[in-house]
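Posting here for the record, re: zinc ion.
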Amino acid sequence: MLVVRAYKTELDLTHAQITACEQHAGAARYAYNWGLRRKQEGYQQTGTSPSAIDLHRELNALKKTTLPWMYAVSKCAPQEALRNLDRAFAHYFRRCQQKQTGQWHGNVGYPHPKSKKQGLGSFRLTGSLHIGVAAIQLPRLGRLRLKERGYLPTTPTDGVKLLSATISEQAGHWYVSVQVEQDQTAPDNAGPVVGVDLGIKVLATLSDGTVIANPKPLKLQLKKIKRLHKAVTRKHKGSNNRKKAVRKLGAQYRRVANQRANTLHRLTTRLAKTKAVIVIEDLYVAGMLKNHHLAQAIADAGFAEFRRQVTYKATWYGSHVVVVSRWEPTSKRCSQCGWRDADLTLADRVFRCEACGLILDRDLNAARNLADLARLAASSADN
Ligand SMILES: [Zn+2]
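Prediction output follows.
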């Protein structure tokens, strides 16, 4: 099966290369914001807005007159930024439609201009790309060294088709994410069925009794982040000290994001590699996020991200993900005899069955119920 997947790794850039990357990111941001304005103007004047192709043609004409500085960067950077803009609008319209039909309950995000305050940003390049063991070769930017040798699939030896490369910056570090098309055919995984209960106190409880602790990075490091935020506001706007404080704050956020991503990736890879069926609950994340006390912890644990990762990794490693409707009372049902505890609240951490006497950790009971539901579904499909 041909799948598109991305590999992201850190770059080891020289000062000249950093400047060139900043220029490319700047051109991409400029094109995106300019395109957004042009689309809005077009819509107000004629009722339709110009497409990425129209805008790219228009931008090329402007290069000759008002934007000669854009000749210094690869033409891909603004072109791909305009494509991103088209995608942002397509996404927005899809969400609007889903909201009308009741399939989506969250916010619908109208595309907004990209600000330099959010970081230097990113840009995507296509065309003549080559990956070696220690470096990647890109149009205009030349040969960029990689910090980790051998992580990216090399062309052409690994038999992958290279689609694009995206360069991005975060807190002073530069990364490249390459999108490749590769053949990934996995035989059906022979492991057991496992129910996964995602939680707030612990990240996940598996029906076999395994408990994966929650890193809860934000909660632990919230104090530090708050202090760094205060440090920023105390410094004068535009001062060097303020810039320094902003950098420190950015680095702290980056650390937290990396920890969170690392924990989730390790868990989802392990599950997809070793289990035949992974049963998860279709948590109504958007609805739960409205509850402000839970919001921090839930956003932190990254439920939606967990589901996304485990779903795509399952296709790589030959396992299956079963999503159980959120209306199934997995927490309230006894996993041994089926008795229901109608009075169970979020505060009850232990499940006590009044029918068969089972006493079990609440999350483990829920995870076992999830695994049972999958077995039930599988056996009724066989008959
Ligand atoms: Zn029972």
